[in-house]
Amino acid sequence: MTSSRRMAAAMSALAVVASGLVSAAVIGVAPALADHCDPAEQASQGQQQNNNRQRRNGDQQGQDDQQDQDQNQGQNQDQGQNQDQGQNQDQGQDQNQGQDQNQGQNDQQQNGDQNNQQNDQQNGDQQNGDQQQGQDQQAPQGGAKLLDPAAPPEDAPEAAPEDEQTASTFSRRRNNPTRTATPVPTRNNPGGGNASPTASPTGSATNDPDEAACADLGPFPEDFVDIRRVAPQRVNARFNRNGSRGTFVSQCGRNENKHNNPDNFIVAPGVSNGAHHLHDYVGNLSTDAFSTDESLAAAGTTCRLGDRSTYFWPVLRNRKVDANDNDPDGNVGQQLTARAVQLQFRGNASSRVVAMPRFLRIITGDAKAATNGTANAKAAWSCTGFQNRITTDKYPLCPRGSLVLRILDFPSCWDGQNTDSANHRTHVVFPDQNGACPQGTRAIPQLRMTLAYSVPQGPSYALDAFPEQKHNPVTDHADFANVMPDRLMQTVVSCINRGRRC
């Protein structure tokens, strides 16, 4: 009987080893590229590796314990045989039976402890899931007013509870090992919010070739923030009695016709792939690296009322989906089309506006702000239902039912002479903190692009960017060239100066 028990114990140990090998083989399967490039997956890989190590350590400990028990049983049997055969054999049997009983009790107790731990963990997970679901259901359901996604809510939402999970706690909990930080200079931020962008990251070495391909791509879990953790603020300057309060919206669609290219005829004219990231275009149908004033004026448009202006911005991607994985600039993931695009021309808080000259070219933001610093950065991210909460250096994590917003304000104080400048900035500058234009400049209608997106839940989306920018959200930017007919531009100016909404 003792020999049968030893045989059963040995078979059990072999089963444990085989189970561990099968688990290791399953766990060792390389995930898809998009999983490695998904910031949420990056954060969870460290925890998964720790779990695998703990599982292997537990299997090894079980094998060692089983071997010790077999050796002890063999020693006890030898001692029993060296004594008087009748009495000592009974004693050896009693000892073995006692050991078997103790071993069975220990096994039952160990199994019971494991079951209790599993039940406790399941109950805790279920409770946490119920709590998170309740919080999401109580969050304001944004996205209903897509015609004006930038409008601030009537009632500011309450701050999130202190124990609410954020992107930063997400990162700390899972101990992501593949990122180190290089600080980026801060900037003065008249509009409030987070003034300093997240660090420009560099990845650490890894032995997995798939991980190595994505470890340095960015973004990273710390590049995201729960929008409910962002403090409310005043978004617009206060108008005085001389201000121009009207607005005009040019309706140009959402790029349903998939007009995309990685060009930028303003910053890199005549250079194919001059941007090294994909742009969405609305308005002028011909815009590419080789566009000129003449070619733009002769082309068709997606805008109403004959607006042949060109409006373009970097695309946003879903990083959970394997797509574009061979892109040499690291812009991987499925391209997302905006759910709503609003191109609104606004007034000036301190004065009336004058007409833009035709073929005026303007840029906003800095596509290389993660390495250049934030002097020219103008990124603004938010969520529908939370438009009074703006983050300039992080991607927002929105509650379910709320859309991600990109709010891109253009400079609106023109020098009165030039349609472009060497750095594409000095001919049109931003108003000051009070909304007034600097001396020697004139207020023109200010373009505000508001782009609304439905994105995957969690930190799993990213902006197209130059490779060295690591998809940092502070690099958001956009471009515009005015090709409105003069008559349409006069209508825009009239609506704004008269306080109308057109």
Describe the structure.
This protein has a 5-stranded antiparallel beta sheet with strand order 4-10-18-14-12. Strands 5-6-7-20-11 form a 5-stranded antiparallel beta sheet, with no helix packed on it. The protein has 9 helices and 20 strands. It is globular, with a radius of gyration of 32 Å. It has 502 residues and is α+β, with helices and mostly antiparallel strands. Residues 16-34, 72-147 and 153-207 have low confidence and may be disordered. Helix 1 (2-27) packs antiparallel against helix 3 (39-82), helix 3 packs antiparallel against helix 4 and helix 3 (39-82) runs parallel beside helix 5. 33% of the residues lie in helices and 15% in strands. The longest helix has 54 residues, at 85-138.
